[in-house]
Amino acid sequence: MTSDGGIKIPSRLPLLLSHEGVLLPGSTVRFSVDSPRNMQLVSQRLLRGTSLKSTIIGRRTPPPSCLCSPTFSGSLSPFFHLCVCRIGTAGIAVQVVGSNWPKPHYSLLITGLCRFRVSSLLKERPFVLAEVEQLDKLDQYTTPATEGAAAEDEELGELSKKFYQAAVQLLGMLDMSVPVVAKFRRLLDSLPRETLPDVVASMIRTSNKEKLQVLDAVSLEERFKKALPMLTKQIEGLKLLQKTRKMNPDNEKRVLSVRKGGVFPGRQFNLDGEDEEEDGDDAVALEKKVHGANMPDAALRVCLKELKRLKKMPQSMPEYALTRNYLDLMVELPWSKSTKDCLDIRAARTLLDNDHYAMDKLKRRVLEYLAVRQLKTSLKGPILCFVGPPGVGKTSVGRSIARTLGREFHRIALGGVCDQSDIRGHRRTYVGSMPGRIINGLKTVGVNNPVFLLDEVDKLGKSLQGDPAAALLEVLDPEQNHSFTDHYLNVAFDLSQVLFIATANTTATIPPALLDRMEVLQVPGYTQEERVEIAHRHLIPNQLEQHGLTPQQLHIPQETTQDIISRYTREAGVRSLERKIGAICRAVAVKVAEGHRCEGIKSLPLMQMIVTAIKLCSYCATISG
Ligand SMILES: Nc1ncnc2c1ncn2[C@@H]1O[C@H](COP(=O)(O)OP(=O)(O)OP(=O)(O)O)[C@@H](O)[C@H]1O
């Protein structure tokens, strides 16, 4: 990186393009990265690279006109033409923090080094790579202030002197303790004069547009000319504020804020209290939500403690986002929100009969279970586990139970889960930590008494990351689940109101301890006659509706259904049969959309299509595919 021309940045730089914030040389800014291209840049360049060179990236805030362009996050050529001719800042990534919650993203802390101009674009994917020309000298920070000044011509010397004096005047007007002012003064004196416009513009409160103007000013003189009015505006603003304070001493307590964001080579500070106020409002709103969430005392205590920490944290700290996410989840959880059960056994029987044909034994046991629940509301009852071949309606009975009770339904697919953190969540000390599926499910349904269907408990795996079945033991044990503690929450959540139902294809692979906590209800496969009935009562009407057809447009006689079952399906359940009926519906939908009428007579209404055994042959290609 060093040559006779001083320290050099790499000539090929990956570009981080987002509209969030402006990075000026000499300042440190935190950026949140979540667009696909920028994510690729972080994962392929910053996280894989091992050299110092690989931590240097280019940063450019696209002009506002690009932001509304639909190409901004997609294919980007037109907006590129706009950006190519402009100036950016090369920066060094000093910190990369990744998180998966609420969605995958990285947070980058970047320190601006120098300006560059994009000479040409080398590639756009997987991230943007450009050939760049370095515009500022990098060794200016290492050159003592006086040496830099010696080279200045008269006019520039005058300008920089004026700028320095304005910066000192502004510093004197700030409501800060004497040691802090002294520290900033020392910083101001130690900086080479040519870096002052960038450093001061990044510290004072200005719009991104104004900061971009400073960035785009390649000549030092122009940069001073652009930054000086911003500084003067701040001074005028403060003078006005002091005047009003003198007239109204009550406002005396309005203290100007000092923001301790990491700024290179000094620290970033804000020159008015507006932002602080916004943060304050935000914290007050969050505190209100915490008090209004009706959470138990233990959880409330934890939340208030976290809130207190949050208020003291600068927003730029990575932990701020983590704590904020945690508190957001805590207030969103349904600690004491529940739906009222509206159980009527007769209505439940009708509903179960309407939704499912046959399965008499299973329906009888479900009704017994519901009846006992009606008589004894606080039933610490058995967990029902429906065991049977695929497609026999286990999941769908679970859904019907939720409907009969008037409860929310949530399905948790456990097939292939082999990490116990999937159930219990990760501790908050982990990067990308998040709550487990149980807590996530509760957040999704928004009530604390839903019906949770634990689908495919027989397909739980085991790995080095722990045994998820062991974590489920606590969830399903009525003696323990009133104080279920997710690792992410780290406070107990009462799961005793949740109605758990499990499904499995076989009991052979369910861990014995888990099986012991459940009452197994076998759901056998169907006979040919039962399948024909299920098809005509449920599957055909459902498929017609899903494909926008009416019984007047398509009729499948019983013999045809028997034919489909015997010739095209080999299963214990009815899922494959349902798919074949769906295939017939699709083929008929095409004909209906084409306007299938009696040959030539357009005035006649659309004809009903009857799928006879002979016609079935012509659909063979569709349904056996
Ligand atoms: N007795 C029945 N009456 C009405 N529809 C049924 C019946 N049995 C199954 N079905 C229908 O079959 C389809 C498949 O059922 P479901 O998804 O509940 O099967 P499953 O037993 O949970 O299968 P898997 O073990 O693969 O999860 C659903 O559309 C369901 O409505």
UniProtKB/TrEMBL annotation:
The lineage of its organism: Eukaryota, Metazoa, Chordata, Craniata, Vertebrata. Gene3D superfamilies: 1.10.8.60, 1.20.5.5270, 1.20.58.1480, LON domain-like, P-loop containing nucleotide triphosphate hydrolases. Pfam families: AAA, Lon_lid, LON_substr_bdg. It comes from the Eukaryota. One of its GO terms (biological process) is protein catabolic process. Residues 13-235 form the Lon N-terminal domain. Keywords: ATP-binding, Hydrolase, Nucleotide-binding, Protease, Serine protease. PROSITE patterns: LON_N. The keyword ATP-binding applies. The keyword Hydrolase applies. One of its GO terms (molecular function) is ATP binding. Coiled coil: none annotated. This is Lon peptidase 2, peroxisomal. InterPro entries: AAA+_ATPase, ATPase_AAA_core, Lon_lid, Lon_Prtase, Lon_prtase_N, Lon_prtase_N_sf, P-loop_NTPase, PUA-like_sf.
